[in-house]
């Protein structure tokens, strides 16, 4: 695969005395926190997390020397929790969310409360407290399915409760920007990497392979999806702190260079795990995971480039599960 030149990190000419990362114990949030801890233009870091089933303190296996890293347990839907966390901050990176599509279908009310009401609560506090930068991480799923090379100006056509909640949260960010908050919205494709929760597609398939079960695909196998290494999503989020903005609101697609069919992904997993247990295809397809391509020229114009690869992230993910395969098999 031909690669672009590596990302040139933006000049760290914007200093932040305090950055709050919501969902900082999550799959993406912990990567962002680790990266921010190494940046010399960041003062205090605060993790604000509800510590749900998706949180994992082990993701913070990093020597945060010289950094004050308080972890505040709180709920983004709680006004008092949010004001306590954001007091004195000048930047918020918002990653706290309910994200699993099947669970959103089973419990859409929870997804609306956390993803919409929670985001609105954060935005109200950010505006009141004078936060100067708000980075909101959304999803490519707000566009819906069936369209390739979608630009940021395309209409939002979410097809699941999860995607609808994220699209509605984006509308709240846009309204806050109109009121004066400087905000950036990122719409990444499917993210993959070590540390991802077992309910997500790729970890679930790896676990099925380890248990010598047939891999359950949510398609006929030919569906192609774009994947983004979690390290590159973290890069984009951290770089967004320094990107110049002529307007209060900036929206960027964040695509992935690798587009793989579900069959190809299954083969890669079989090769890494060392099993060949067969496949099970979904009778009902279209569970909400869209597979369209994103036009991400706008974010690349700012110097962003993908440096990681799907293969490297999958290898690390498989290695993590292989290291505790005995426990997984005993639990099956």
TrEMBL record:
It comes from the Bacteria. Pathway: Bacterial outer membrane biogenesis; LPS O-antigen biosynthesis. Gene3D superfamilies: NAD(P)-binding Rossmann-like Domain, UDP-galactose 4-epimerase, domain 1. InterPro entries: Epimerase_deHydtase, NAD(P)-bd_dom_sf. Residues 19-255 form the NAD-dependent epimerase/dehydratase domain. Pfam families: Epimerase (PF01370). This is NAD-dependent epimerase/dehydratase family protein. It comes from Roseibium porphyridii. The lineage of its organism: Bacteria, Pseudomonadati, Pseudomonadota, Alphaproteobacteria, Hyphomicrobiales.
């Amino acid at each position: 695969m031909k690669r672009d030149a590596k990302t040139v990190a933006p000049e760290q000419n914007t200093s932040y005395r305090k950055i709050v990362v919501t969902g900082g114990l999550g799959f993406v949030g912990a990567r962002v926190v680790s990266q921010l801890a190494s940046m010399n233009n960041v003062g205090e870091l605060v993790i604000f997390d509800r510590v749900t089933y998706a949180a994992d303190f082990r993701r913070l296996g990093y020597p945060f020397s010289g950094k004050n890293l308080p972890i505040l347990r709180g709920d983004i839907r709680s006004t008092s929790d949010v004001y306590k966390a954001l007091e004195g901050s000048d930047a918020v990176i918002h990653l706290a969310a309910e994200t699993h599509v099947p669970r959103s279908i089973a419990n859409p009310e929870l997804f609306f409360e956390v993803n919409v009401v929670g985001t609105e609560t954060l935005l109200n506090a950010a505006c009141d407290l004078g936060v100067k930068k708000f980075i909101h991480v959304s999803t490519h799923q707000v566009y819906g399915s069936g369209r390739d090379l979608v630009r940021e100006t395309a209409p939002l056509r979410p097809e699941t409760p999860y995607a609808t909640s994220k699209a509605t949260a984006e509308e709240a960010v846009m309204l806050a920007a109109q009121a004066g908050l400087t905000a950036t919205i990122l719409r990444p494709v499917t993210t993959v990497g070590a540390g991802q929760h077992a309910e997500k597609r790729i970890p679930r398939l790896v676990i099925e392979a380890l248990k010598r079960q047939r891999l359950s695909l949510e398609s006929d196998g030919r569906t192609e999806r774009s994947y983004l290494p979690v390290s590159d999503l973290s890069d984009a989020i951290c770089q967004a702190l320094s990107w110049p903005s002529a307007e209060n609101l900036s929206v960027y697609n964040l695509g992935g260079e690798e587009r793989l069919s579900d069959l190809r992904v299954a083969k890669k997993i079989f090769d890494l795990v060392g099993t060949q247990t067969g496949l099970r295809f979904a009778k009902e397809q279209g569970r909400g995971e869209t597979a369209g391509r994103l036009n991400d020229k706008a974010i690349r114009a700012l110097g962003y480039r993908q440096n990681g690869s799907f293969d490297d992230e999958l290898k690390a993910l498989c290695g993590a599960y292989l290291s505790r395969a005995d426990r997984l098999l005993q639990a099956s």
